[in-house]
Design brief:
By secondary structure, the chain is mainly beta. Strands 1, 2, 3, 4, 5, 6, 7, 10, 12, 15 and 16 form an eleven-stranded mixed sheet that branches.
Amino acid sequence: MKTYYFRLLSWLGGGPRRARRGLVLLLLVLLSAPVARATHIVGGEMDLQYLSGNTYQLTLNLYFDAVNGNPSALDGSLTAGIFEKDTNRKLGSVLLPLISDTFVNYTNPACAVGSLSTKALVYRNTIELPPGTYGASQGYYVAVERCCRNVTISNIVAPQNAAQTFYLEFPAVVRNGQAFRDSTPRLFPALADYACLGELFTYDFGGQDPDGDSLVYDLVTPLNGHATPIVPSPVAAGAPYAEITWAPGRSQTNQIPGTPALSIGVRTGRLQVRPAMQGLFVFGVRCQEFRQGMKIGETRRDFQVQVLACPKNNPPSLALLPTPSGRVVYHAGRDTLRIVPSGPHCVRLRFTDPDPNSRLTLSLRPVDYAGALPTFTTATSGTVHLAGAPDTLVASLCFADCTNTLGKVAHLDVIVADNGCSLPKHDTVHVAFIGMPPPNAPPTLTSTAGPTLPLHVRPGQTLAFDLTGTDAEADPIVFTLAGSPGFAPDVLGATLTPQAQVGTMRPARFTWPVDCRAITDPPGQVRMLVFTATSTTPCGDKQASAPLSVPVIVDYTNVPPVLTSTLPPAGAGAEPPLIRVPLGQPYVATLAGTDADSDVLTLSASSQGFDLAAAGMRFVPTASPAGRANATFSWLPACDGVGVRDGQPQVLTVTFQLQEATCRPQPQARTVRFEVVNPDTAAFTPPNIILPTGSNQANRVFTIGSLPPDFCDTRFTGIKIFSRWGRLVYESGDRNFAWAGENSAGTYYYLLTYTTGRRYKGWVEVMQ
């Protein structure tokens, strides 16, 4: 470029000014173009991860050639466009700032070459995908466009002008009215290694799916898109995106020439090629995501691999010697190792490499075995053919005593790898084996329940007996307690308390304080207490005893108690009987209760709307043995009690109840009404004729011997007698008044008054 620059300046010196001005402009364009092209994109991919609500995280991983790339072309941010898949309608843009800038490590750092160094640039931001916007059934895609690729790429046309479109498809966030959450595949391994001419090159290019969706891989032609050297980072436009142009002889199915040509495992994502040509080769991989057999998205990944002429590296070799003598070689596909308690658990390994100074390393890889892997008991690495070093290394691989393949043949790979470049060479022995742990018998379980079954117990009693678990190998024992369907003993208060294990035996105590909750409906049904003893072997396996079932019946019957008393019997009517007691005279009644079941009985009295003590009533229960109850009720009516209000007697209702202490009580009750006898209800028949001049002494004056007596606050205040014209002719405050009449015969009217306002009216005839 410098030579071209000076020659051009020399030629410019002799031309016309206008020509010189145009050529200067051309020179500036030519000088600036390499800056735009010198971005040297190696490849990359995007992923979209669900966070919460409607929030997702969008990440772009961009790989940059750290050897040939122009540092000024490192973007501080990139912009992604989001599009509707079926219409290509743009829904928005997302700014992705650069958050990480690191180097990609070689698998074997000692194999590093100066012509190959890759940086991983991570751009990331969060986005919102509301259901109202992102519900299209065909889904959506995200794209970021950037130019340019490496100038030295061998398998495409004009690589200096080739751009890359980072492309990702994702599904709608709602399906059938329900939220549909998806995180796209991620964590694809970055490629920093180179391939060697004529040597088989393999690399794991598989991703991981956070949702456990199925991933399918294939090779595709990389996308170029709309970016150009002049506009290296355009605003992302919608599909379709132009593809790169393959060089002659190259195609989607022959991206890197070789025998075999580049291929990828459909399910594994593992790349494989034996390159037949040196150079720098770009390739494209598509990872499609399926859920329940339906495709929901895809991720495209572009990358490049460099093919170099490497020094010859022969693969190491590994032999497995299963016999104690170490002279018989294991043949994969024909032999099966048997790891049994009485047999050997270790095998010998011999590994070597024809190349001098090769450092070899052993490793294990399970194929279809999820148990604990065997362990190397001697050195797993070493150097061969070095001065003082052996030509063959030896190691021991030992299986644990507890190796258990559950009666099936399991497989694992024993791998030896060298430290050759570009990638280690391997030799693998595919080992088939059957592992049988030491024999172990399940524990046995016995109890002291019985000898007569089923066990009978009543509420209020405690059911208790002992259990013993026995394990012949003295493995630790754990007890469990359960019940027949619908019966949960632990919920009803039953406990099983294990004691310390001594040797092969471990005792436990079962205790159940039976209460009312244990009664069945109807009572007397048989239910099962189910016990199990489980032992844990040294290998972690659990062995359970046969269940031990103990039938139990919770007995319960109840005869209603009987209540007797000296209270008057209940009548045929709806109203309780009425007991009328004169003021100041005591009333006493006795009550007694009996119960055929000998349940504890309690007698009580309750009032309706008044206080017993305030009314002068007393209820005194007496101590009685179980199945009996006695009490005395007494009442002394008084004016200062609640039985009289405003001078009028009140009806007082009392309920006597006999209650039994049992699970399903049947209480008995008697209700009685009480009332104070009001004296003014006695016959009141005053005379209505007097003969002041008659011979009958009893009829000569007007007096009332049967005058209603005073009752509490109701007291006699006086009498007034009026003529037929309303003239007061007589008045007295004496209960023993006597009126001899007036001088003239006729009809007179009287008025009797009491303190509470009670009044009595009548008439009397005076005859001459």
